[in-house]
Amino acid sequence: MGGLSPLRHSLVERSCITGVAHVPFGAHPTSSGPDYGFDLKHLKDYNEAANVEGGFAAWRARFIDGISHDDYLAAAGGAEKLATLPLPVF
Fold first, then answer.
1. Closest Cα to residue 78, out of 42, 43, 49, 54?
2. How many separate domains does the chain show?
3. Among 13, 27, 43, 78, which residue is least crowded by beta carbons within 10 Å?
4. What is the dihedral sign for C-alpha 11, 16, 17, 23?
5. Domain region containing 47
6. Is 44 contained in some domain?
């Protein structure tokens, strides 16, 4: 991860920013170009889980509740896999 976005693309006024956190794959399952693309499988799995009784609770337990960032990355397939997600073409 190292691509810097031009300031004109910033969604937040710079005077409102008080700090920055380095979180590898922090935009997952969405894209953060030029480093990695959308994780469509993950997004589809989330959508399916949200549409069945108890599905979201199970999804949340797997990916959010009480897990570390490293555990999240492992549950999502690992940093190596996420780094290979193709960038979207607009």
1. 42
2. 1
3. 13
4. negative
5. 7-82
6. yes
